[in-house]
Automatic annotation (TrEMBL):
Residues 38-133 form the Glycoside hydrolase family 65 N-terminal domain. This is Glycoside hydrolase family 65 protein. GO terms for molecular function: hydrolase activity, hydrolyzing O-glycosyl compounds. It comes from Ulvibacterium marinum. SUPFAM superfamilies: Six-hairpin glycosidases. It holds the Pfam family Glyco_hydro_65N. GO terms for biological process: carbohydrate metabolic process. Residues 1-18 form the signal peptide. Keywords: Hydrolase, Signal. Transmembrane segments: none annotated. Residues 307-502, 528-600 form the Glycoside hydrolase family 65 central catalytic domain. InterPro entries: 6-hairpin_glycosidase_sf, 6hp_glycosidase-like_sf, GH65_N, Glyco_hydro_65_M, Glyco_hydro_65_N. The keyword Hydrolase applies.
Length: 676
């Protein structure tokens, strides 16, 4: 009963705190814990529920082979965000603290942990993945002694065992009277592809940190090349508030010729920049991101869930990076950190509405790898460009060879081109369309002409594919594959006309004759041999949204009612999101809201609501699911639509559970749409 009472108290306190502004998610100690990542598009820092412990750091777009015969896998970074704190010779652990609380402030991307150590001190620390200094993190710490105490703080660089040849050092750099103590480790990634350099140091806010004689004395301890430590001790009187920080930076040869030295520079910048200035710039950049926001009145939990989804898409991306977003973002190494259709179909549309800079990075990621896609098409006997099902830094196919998706799930090539045309339709950036957009869309269209097979009756089939429903491999005329190919061919024709080029007449010919199969009653048939089997995720229904290939209401409803009951519980969350958008666009708010909640509520993991991929899985954070639920709000309830005239609002609808919905900062004009 005590556990249940404590849990109910935690929920009540959480609700009260969240009531303040709809930006705060907090939790006390819970039995089953899933952390929430703080990230800046380059690194992701995942805290634990133990004092001063961090589970992992993920490095975006830094890959090495997972094994000698394996595929690429995103790197687990060397961890600079773990500390030890001792008071009067006793190390602080989860066993000797009380009043434990963790708070995520989504507005400033700050993750704060607070607790009391016996009757001796109250301690608070906040973790930032600095948005302004993008390869670095910052742990800001405050101690308030309730008795006179002796404090020992130890900052650590922990190197995962998969790294090879680590070299751990401590140096005090000096320029005139300015001294800069640097704890540092340099190592090779698991198969030697990259050198990774990490640096860290302490910062004392209340003194002139550039003068060595005013600092506490630092002690270096190298437990091993994999465990590098730096510590100091300080006596504190009762009530003598003490603030300091621990900052680290991590760089690799993916981005820098000399990652060791560059990591030092980032740490020195953080060391010698006043805390207020450093953190104010981080907060300003997050304030700029939140110019694109979704505001729900009348349902606090829905507001928090939607904001948390948007927070993650912002945290996992950068408008200045030309990088994409993996299904699990920067929260883990799941799916090897590869890039799938998850970006173009699920995460890209909300970001295109609310932040065109990030959207441009996502499409530029693909155009930067166009040459590799052209090589792949040639290698498989096709023309044009053929994008990999799983992509990494190289742009080559990164799917494990045993997975049929890597060889046969070809709709990704159309998905990329569709995202390109939608980026142009929203931004009207004709220069980008000429230089990056149309060249890729042309190659994609040529691919689909070469990929389609002409039937005796003059129609075209696309044979031997894995569709969005991956439960059905190696089928012919998969509905979504065919529908996306039609759409990509039509969009390429429009793009050619827009840039003043002559479109290939075969694009129109093939697009107009690709088969969309039907059952006798008019329901769209998922593939040539489909006979009512269970499906992994929505496939046919994607022809209605987002493709608009199937748009007569009778067929739309038939397809909804036929396929929704067939969606497997272990399937990813996005299928429910598709159904929800379609019901909202049909004016059925009740069904839309039911499916909106069903698209993510069973996937939430305590205590912060991190999303797992499916109701039956435990692999948060699933950024793809976040993209799906946000599309329900924007394109379903909000009524937004991407057209050749740009973003328009058509028939918004409000569920009875909400008082109003405000979509803020939409499109290049930063428009506000309100539904009441």
């Amino acid at each position: 009963m005590k556990t249940k009472t404590a849990f109910l108290c935690m929920l009540f306190c959480f609700a009260l705190k969240a009531q303040e502004n709809g930006w705060i998610i907090s939790s006390g100690k819970v039995e089953k814990y899933t952390g929430i990542v703080t990230a800046n598009g380059r690194i992701g820092i995942l805290p634990e529920d133990k004092p001063f412990k961090t589970k992992s750091i993920i490095l975006n777009n830094v890959y090495d082979k997972e094994s000698p015969l394996g595929v690429s896998k995103i790197l687990l970074g060397m961890n600079f965000a773990n500390l030890d704190l001792e008071i009067d010779g006793e190390k602080i652990t989860e066993e000797n603290i009380s009043d434990f609380e963790q708070v995520l402030d989504m507005k400033t991307a700050a993750f704060t942990t607070s607790f009391s150590f016996k009757d001796k001190a109250k301690i608070t620390y906040t973790i930032y993945a600095l948005r302004n200094v993008q390869y670095s993190g910052y742990v800001d710490i405050k101690l308030i002694p309730t008795k006179s105490i002796s404090v020992k703080a130890t900052g650590k660089i922990s190197t995962p065992e998969e790294y090879v040849e680590p070299l751990s050092t401590f140096r005090v750099l000096q320029d005139l009277e300015t001294t800069m103590p640097i704890l540092q480790t340099v190592a090779k990634s698991r198969m030697g592809k990259h050198t990774v350099g990490i640096s860290a140091t302490f910062i004392w806010h209340a003194i002139n940190s550039t003068r060595e004689h005013q600092r506490p004395q630092l002690v270096h301890e190298k437990v091993s090349e994999y465990d590098n430590r730096l510590s100091f001790e300080k006596e504190l009187k009762k009530g003598e508030e003490f603030e300091f920080a621990w900052t680290g930076a991590e760089c690799s040869t993916q981005d820098f010729e000399d990652p060791q030295t560059e990591s030092e520079r980032f740490v020195i910048f953080n060391l010698l920049t006043p805390r207020e200035d450093l953190l104010d710039q981080h907060k300003k950049l997050w304030a700029d991101l939140w110019e694109g926001d979704i505001i729900i009145e009348g349902n606090l939990q829905d507001q928090l869930d939607v904001r948390l989804a948007l927070y993650h898409l912002y945290a996992f991306s950068r408008g200045d990076s030309n990088l994409s977003i993996a299904p699990m973002g920067l929260s883990s190494q799941n799916y090897n950190g590869h890039i799938f259709w998850d970006t173009e179909l699920w995460m890209f549309p909300p970001l295109l509405m609310l932040n065109q800079d990030i959207a441009r990075s996502l499409v530029n990621y693909r155009s930067d790898r166009l040459d590799k896609a052209k090589e792949k098409a040639i290698n498989f006997g096709y023309k044009g460009a053929m994008f990999p099902w799983e992509s990494d830094d190289t742009g080559e196919e990164a799917t494990p060879a045993w997975a049929l998706t890597g060889t046969f799930e070809h709709h990704i090539t159309a998905d990329v081109s569709i995202a390109f045309w939608n980026y142009y339709r929203v931004t009207k950036n004709l220069e980008w369309l000429r230089e990056k957009g149309y060249p890729l869309m042309k190659e994609v269209a040529d691919y689909w002409v070469s990929r389609a097979a002409k039937n005796e009756d003059g129609s075209y089939s696309i044979k031997n594919v894995v569709g969005a429903n991956e439960f059905a491999p190696n089928v012919d005329d998969n509905a979504f594959t065919n529908g996306s190919a039609i759409t990509a061919l039509e969009f390429a024709t429009l793009a050619a006309n827009k840039v003043g080029e002559k479109p290939n007449p075969e694009w129109v010919e093939v697009a107009s004759k690709i088969r969309i199969l039907k059952f006798p009653d008019g329901t769209t048939k998922e593939h040539a041999t489909y006979n009512g089997e269970r499906i992994k995720q929505a496939d046919v229904n994607l022809l209605t949204y987002p493709l608009d290939v199937v748009n007569d209401e009778t067929t739309v409803l038939k397809d909804l009612k036929y396929y929704e009951p067939k969606l497997a519980e272990e399937g990813p969350a996005m299928g429910q999101s598709v159904f929800a958008v379609i019901y909202a666009r049909l004016g059925n708010a009740k069904e839309a809201y039911r499916l909106f909640r069903r698209s993510y509520e069973p996937n939430k993991r305590p205590p912060f609501g991190a999303l797992a991929e499916a109701a039956t899985s435990d692999n948060p954070y699933f950024a793809t699911g976040a993209g799906g639920m946000l599309q329900v709000v924007l394109f379903g309830f909000g009524g937004l639509d991407i057209t050749d005239e740009g973003i328009v609002q058509k028939n918004p609808i409000l569920p009875k559970e909400w008082k109003s919905l405000t979509l803020k900062g939409v499109g290049p004009g930063r428009k506000t749409y309100k539904v009441e």
